[in-house]
């Protein structure tokens, strides 16, 4: 009997000691969790993590062919500039990448530029506006139609179109304009089956944007399309970028009651809102892209992506006199089966890339798909 009592007492003492020890460890953890040693991962889990990282890196551009030279060049570049201790390391705040829109991230002409198509729709097809359209707007719409049918345009077509867009959407708030654009973008693409205009973004290029974003690059769209058209189109598209990173051509913004009063002499009050003023300011092409990058971003990019001569100034600005390792890529639309390619123009672009130190990207040879396997060109 005495032995049983002693045994019971012993277990009680052990239980108390264990409880006190447990409370002590718990208290130490909550008071200062850093004092609790964390077990290092086993070699097998570490190897698993490394393998997973390698897989993610390898598959980052999974829609690009493995033998695509541009893919290899881009991934090697990103690895070099994001690795701390590398001679080419670029701080996160300086990792700026700029992309043209039409023909670089999305379909350029189907059958014309997106901003031309929506303008034509506004002036010639929109039942709420076509009877209000000015003679000038109708004339420019006629010129757009000619371009759609023949590919020919006036030398001053860009400026005329910019002015016509400004007047045709005058009086809308930016939000109303963006919604109008988004709604139009959701209509079926004219030259393709199984896709809307908003979905006509190149899937391999969307991978590039995601890949750069995951590696702490800040990505900007620098387009010749009207800024608010870019916003509305992107909002309806698979491209996930905020408005502050979308740059385009500009029109004036005013208060509805401002009239012709200069902004220095007009005070915005609690009853006001911003609307499109109807005056065209600038077409964001050529050298104007360089200017707007400095004005709005304030940093020299280290990566530039374009597809035409109107992007060359932006590309040259990126790769020349840069304190960091920088590159420029030009997309060559040489695919006539899956896209509205022009092999002759594409060949000239390849030569221009060689002359200017840019890297050419071939739609036909570098990409496994463009819009997805279920999309067919008519």
Write a concise synopsis of the structure shown.
The protein is of the alpha/beta class.
Task: Outline the fold blueprint.
Layout lengths: L1 H30 L11 H17 L9 H14 L13 E4 L14 H12 L9 H16 L6 H12 L5 H12 L6 E2 L9 H12 L3 E9 H10 L9 E9 L20 E8 L4 H10 L6 E4 L5 H8 L7 E6 L10 H14 L2 E4 H4 L9 E2 L1
Parallel strand pairs: 1-3, 1-6, 3-4, 6-7, 7-8
Antiparallel strand pairs: 2-9, 4-5
Helix pairs in contact: 4-5, 4-6, 5-6, 7-9
What low-confidence regions span 5 or more consecutive residues with pLDDT below 50?
20-56
Instruction: Report strand order across the widest sheet.
Output: 5-4-3-1-6-7-8
Strand content: 5-15%
- How far apart, in Å, are the first and last alpha carbons? 97 Å
Question: What are the secondary-structure elements, in order, as H or E?
Answer: HHHEHHHHEHEHEEHEHEHEHE
Question: pLDDT average, as an integer?
Answer: 89
Sheet having the most strands? 7 strands, mixed
Helix and strand content put the structural class at: alpha/beta
Number of strands: 9
Number of helices: 13
User: Could you say which overall geometry the principal axes of the C-alpha atoms support?
Assistant: globular
In helices, the fraction of residues equals 40-55%
Q: What Rg do the Cα atoms give? A: 29 Å
């Amino acid at each position: 009997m005495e032995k049983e009592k002693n045994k019971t007492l012993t277990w009680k003492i052990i239980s108390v000691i264990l409880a006190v020890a447990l409370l002590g460890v718990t208290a130490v953890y909550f008071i200062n969790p850093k004092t609790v040693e964390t077990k290092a991962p086993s070699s097998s889990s570490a190897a698993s993590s490394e393998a997973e990282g390698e897989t993610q890196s390898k598959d980052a551009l999974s829609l690009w062919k493995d033998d695509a030279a541009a893919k290899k060049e881009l991934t090697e570049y990103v690895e070099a500039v994001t690795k701390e201790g590398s001679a080419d390391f670029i701080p996160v705040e300086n990792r700026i990448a700029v992309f043209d829109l039409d023909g670089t991230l999305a379909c350029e002409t189907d059958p014309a530029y997106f901003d031309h198509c929506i303008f034509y729709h506004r002036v010639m097809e929109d039942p709420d506006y076509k009877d209000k359209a000015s003679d000038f707007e109708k004339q420019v719409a006629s010129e757009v139609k000619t371009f759609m049918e023949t590919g020919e345009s006036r030398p001053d077509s860009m400026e005329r179109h910019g002015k016509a867009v400004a007047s045709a959407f005058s009086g809308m708030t930016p939000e109303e304009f963006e919604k109008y654009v988004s709604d139009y973008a959701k209509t079926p693409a004219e030259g393709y089956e199984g896709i809307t205009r908003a979905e006509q973004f190149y899937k391999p290029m969307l991978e590039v944007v995601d890949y750069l974003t995951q590696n702490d690059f800040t990505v900007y769209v620098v387009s010749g399309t009207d800024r608010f058209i870019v916003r509305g189109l992107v909002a309806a598209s698979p491209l996930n970028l905020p408005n502050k990173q979308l740059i385009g051509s500009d029109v004036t913004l005013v208060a509805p009651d401002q009239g012709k009063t200069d902004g220095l002499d007009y005070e915005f009050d609690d009853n006001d809102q911003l609307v499109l003023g109807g005056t065209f300011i600038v077409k964001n092409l050529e050298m104007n892209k360089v200017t707007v990058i400095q004005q709005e971003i304030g940093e020299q990019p280290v990566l530039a992506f374009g597809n035409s001569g109107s992007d060359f100034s932006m590309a040259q600005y990126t790769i020349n006199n840069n304190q960091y390792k920088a590159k420029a890529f030009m997309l060559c639309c040489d695919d006539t089966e899956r896209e509205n390619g022009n092999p002759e123009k594409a060949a000239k672009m390849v030569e221009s890339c060689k002359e200017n130190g840019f890297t050419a990207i071939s739609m036909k040879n570098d990409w496994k798909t463009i819009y997805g396997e279920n999309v067919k060109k008519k």
